[in-house]
């Protein structure tokens, strides 16, 4: 792990402002029962003879796909031993997604999509902790405890070492195995042995519904002006509700301007950011554009009015995807400014597909463009209007005093 990564992990753990998404992704969630090769060999052969597969006419298939279907059928029918067709399909889809010239299209295993779905849904049933490992054969460490969760009520704190869970030593487990054990178990009670400052404790926790708080807010007063501040950690399914509530409360306090902090926010649901944009601009304005196969489609805001107060975004090199959609939309429509670093540069949209087996994969289906047609993908990103990097002291001990980006935003809005 390089120094920059260590700094970022340290900052995220200490910042304590909500959930940190683990992948750079705009996700438009769809559910699709993919049963192209479902059933037994006879029914599949009948489907091919009938020239239909899941509603697709056999004669409408490409030559390559016809060739694939015929050879797949030949292998299933003639291999000398029984074939696990579910596993065959999974491996085929893994290979297909890996062959696509795109880093965001991928097949996901159970642990990966469970983690993704939890972060994007904004709630789950569990213990309320985020965890990590320094080394593969060492114990699991708590990196974050969600307020009001079973872990919080049970006295678990950030930095606690978890030695075992229900008698299984965590040194023999991966973090994914630990998570899946909690998430998938029919049992609700878990016995954890923890260590803090060399003191060992045995703590029993019961699973409960955990709501991930992805939004936090406050007001800064400077030079007689009220400056609203909202931090967004991810664009999850419940982020819009939290964001609107925070914005309403700030506006009740008659703020003069607003800071929107999307530092380290790597994205989330496109639908979430779309509804949030609609809080700022009316339906005459384009929120963003989508492009597929060279055809551009403008997506209009569903809002009723335009905000008139100044807006500044705080962004860094980890601000990506839905964060960039938000920034680009308000920059083009309301002349919002950006302070911090150039954003990541992810201008594509993915769709998540769920197989009948429960496995999932995601593929890139569209580009997204700013209202004025700019594509920020790859190294382009969105350049800040005022470029400022955080000092090393901030990563060691983040405080308001050493948050140079936030302080500069307040300075600009209090003039």
Descriptive account of the structure:
The strands form five sheets. Strands 1, 4, 16, 17, 18, 21 and 22 form a seven-stranded mixed β-sheet that branches. Strands 6, 7, 8, 9, 10 and 11 form a six-stranded antiparallel β-sheet that branches. A six-stranded mixed β-sheet has the order 13-14-15-19-20-23, with helices on both faces. With 415 residues, it is α/β, with parallel strands linked by helices. Helices cover 31% and strands 28% of the residues. The model is unreliable at 1-53 (pLDDT under 50). The protein has helices at residues 3-15, 41-49, 63-78, 85-99, 110-121, 150-153, 175-184, 239-252, 270-277, 322-334, 392-396, 404-413, and strands at residues 25-29, 52-53, 56-57, 106-108, 123-126, 129-132, 140-145, 161-165, 168-169, 189-196, 199-206, 208-211, 215-222, 225-232, 257-261, 267-269, 286-292, 295-300, 311-315, 337-340, 348-354, 360-369, 386-387. It folds into three domains: 41-108, no CATH class; 123-211, PDZ domain (Pdz3 Domain); 215-413, 2-enoyl-CoA Hydratase, Chain A, domain 1, CATH 3.90.226.10. It contains twelve helices and 23 strands.
């Amino acid at each position: 792990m390089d120094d920059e990564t260590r700094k970022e992990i340290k900052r995220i753990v200490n910042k304590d402002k909500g959930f940190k998404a683990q992948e750079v992704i705009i996700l438009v969630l769809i559910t699709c029962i993919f049963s192209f090769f479902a059933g037994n060999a006879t029914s599949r052969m009948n489907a091919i003879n009938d020239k239909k597969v899941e509603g697709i006419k056999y004669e409408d298939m490409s030559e390559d796909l016809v060739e694939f279907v015929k050879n797949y059928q030949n292998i299933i029918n003639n291999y000398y031993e029984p074939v696990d067709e579910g596993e065959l399909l999974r491996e085929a889809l893994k290979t297909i997604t890996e062959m696509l010239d795109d880093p965001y299209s991928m097949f996901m295993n159970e642990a990966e999509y469970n983690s993704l779905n939890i972060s994007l849904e904004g709630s789950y049933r569990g213990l309320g902790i985020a965890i990590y490992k320094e080394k593969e054969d060492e114990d699991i460490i708590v990196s974050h405890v969600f307020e009001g969760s079973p872990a919080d009520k049970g006295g678990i704190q950030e930095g606690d070492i978890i030695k075992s869970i229900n008698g299984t030593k965590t040194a023999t487990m991966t973090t994914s195995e630990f998570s899946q054990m909690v998430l998938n178990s029919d049992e609700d009670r878990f016995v954890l042995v923890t260590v803090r400052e060399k003191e060992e404790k045995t703590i029993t926790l019961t699973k409960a519904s955990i709501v991930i708080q992805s939004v936090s807010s406050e007001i800064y007063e400077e030079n007689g002006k009220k400056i609203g501040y909202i931090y967004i950690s991810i664009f999850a399914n419940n982020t819009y509700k939290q964001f609107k509530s925070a914005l309403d409360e700030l506006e009740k306090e008659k703020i003069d301007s607003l800071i929107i902090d999307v530092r380290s926010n790597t994205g989330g649901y496109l639908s979430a950011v779309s509804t949030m944009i609609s809080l700022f601009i009316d339906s005459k304005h384009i929120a963003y554009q989508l492009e597929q196969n060279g055809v551009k489609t403008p997506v209009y805001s569903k809002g009723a009015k335009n905000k008139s107060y100044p807006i500044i975004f705080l962004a860094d090199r980890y601000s990506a995807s839905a964060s960039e959609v938000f920034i680009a939309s308000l920059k083009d429509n309301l002349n919002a400014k950006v302070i911090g670093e150039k954003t990541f540069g992810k201008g594509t949209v993915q769709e998540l597909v769920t197989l009948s087996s429960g496995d999932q994969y995601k593929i890139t289906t569209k580009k997204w463009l700013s209202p004025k047609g700019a594509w920020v993908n790859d190294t382009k990103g969105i350049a800040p209007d005022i470029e400022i990097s955080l000092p090393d002291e901030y990563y060691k001990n983040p405080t308001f005093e050493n948050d140079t980006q936030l302080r500069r935003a307040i300075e600009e809005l209090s003039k």
